[in-house]
């Protein structure tokens, strides 16, 4: 482990077993993340990105190796690691304000007064531009607004590490761009340590300090890590013409589509047709 690491994943292996079938998903995952760093995890579908995130969150226990956050080993979920999923996980019967208050009350009941907690909820909702919809129910707001509330709820817990599992994956392109900009602005202010899963190469380059590229499973591991040395704040329009941005983009695309090209297994029909073609 590197002494500067705030979050350290060392020697993580993960195998799922069902009956006699054993599925080795991750092998030798080592990653040190500095405090305040924004890391993206990218890789083909099914390679094990969510499994890595769930191990860091403490929702899954690694078969070997472990995770240390700020000097403490991760053994279970905790408020020091807040998760935001692609599909918001707001409680439908609570308003926007109550959804965030639930997490804030749980985290700060012993350390903040009721008035302080209420102010803190409002502050975080205002930070994601949701101060105008405090009393609406999740069913009464858009998908992008729900994600904002999910992000406010996670930030309000003041986690040591923010874990984002495709947080913008279900949004339309415009809302997605807007929310990415907002997350960049907030991260610029708060300097959160973030680990984000994404399938979107532009999103990874725009938001990250480093992009961790995973090999294909089974037994996936870290294939390469790309440092994104673009100064902040970053402007998506200016960067679209920037040669460095396009170089980074190309590096990730080439990793995914050349070095780690996903070969889908042939269906039975396709196999039969291929063998007929070969014997013809
Ligand atoms: N709880 C579980 N039990 C058994 N197998 C699991 C479990 N969770 C994940 N897997 C398997 O582990 C592998 C990796 O899954 P994971 O969801 O981590 O991949 P991913 O890279 O996040 O995929 P995607 O990009 O499609 O979300 C898959 O083969 C999946 O079926």
Key traits:
Rossmann fold; 2 domains; binds adenosine-5'-triphosphate; 24% strand; 9 helices; globular; six-stranded mixed β-sheet; single chain; 280 residues; alpha/beta
Verbal overview:
The chain has 280 residues and is α/β, with parallel strands linked by helices. The chain folds into two domains: 5-75 and 162-167 and 182-279, Rossmann fold, CATH 3.40.50; 81-158, no CATH class. The chain has nine helices and ten strands. It has helices spanning 49-57, 96-108, 114-127, 143-156, 173-190, 201-207, 236-239, 243-259, 268-279; strands spanning 5-18, 21-34, 38-42, 64-69, 72-73, 81-84, 161-165, 193-197, 210-214, 222-227. The strands form two sheets. The chain has a six-stranded mixed beta sheet, sandwiched between helices. α3 crosses α4 (143-156). The protein is globular and about 70 Å long. The protein starts with a strand and ends with a helix.
């Amino acid at each position: 482990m590197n002494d500067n690491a705030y979050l350290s994943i060392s020697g993580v292996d993960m195998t799922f077993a069902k009956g006699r079938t054993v599925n080795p998903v991750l092998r030798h995952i080592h990653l040190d993340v500095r405090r305040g760093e924004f890391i993206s995890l990218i890789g083909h579908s099914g390679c094990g990105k969510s499994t890595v995130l769930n191990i860091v969150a403490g929702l899954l226990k690694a078969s070997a190796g472990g995770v240390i956050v700020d000097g403490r080993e991760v053994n279970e979920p905790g408020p020091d690691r807040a998760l935001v999923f692609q599909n918001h996980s707001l409680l439908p019967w609570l308003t926007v304000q109550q959804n965030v208050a639930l997490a804030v009350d749980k985290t700060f009941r012993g350390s903040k007064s009721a008035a302080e907690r209420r102010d803190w909820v409002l502050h975080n909702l205002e930070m994601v531009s949701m101060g105008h919809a405090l009393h609406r129910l999740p069913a009464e707001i858009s998908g992008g607004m729900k994600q904002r509330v999910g992000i406010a709820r996670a930030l309000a817990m003041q986690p040591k590490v923010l874990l984002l599992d495709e947080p913008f994956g279900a949004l339309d392109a415009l809302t997605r761009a807007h929310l990415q900009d907002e997350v960049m602005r907030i991260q610029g202010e708060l300097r959160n340590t973030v680990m984000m899963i994404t399938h979107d190469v532009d999103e990874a380059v725009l938001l990250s300090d480093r992009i961790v590229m995973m090999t294909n499973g089974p037994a996936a591991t870290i294939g390469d890590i790309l440092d994104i040395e673009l100064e902040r704040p970053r402007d998506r329009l200016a960067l679209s013409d920037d040669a460095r941005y396009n170089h980074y983009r190309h590096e990730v695309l080439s990793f995914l589509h050349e070095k780690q090209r996903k070969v889908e297994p042939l269906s039975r029909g396709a196999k039969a047709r291929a063998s007929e073609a070969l014997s013809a």
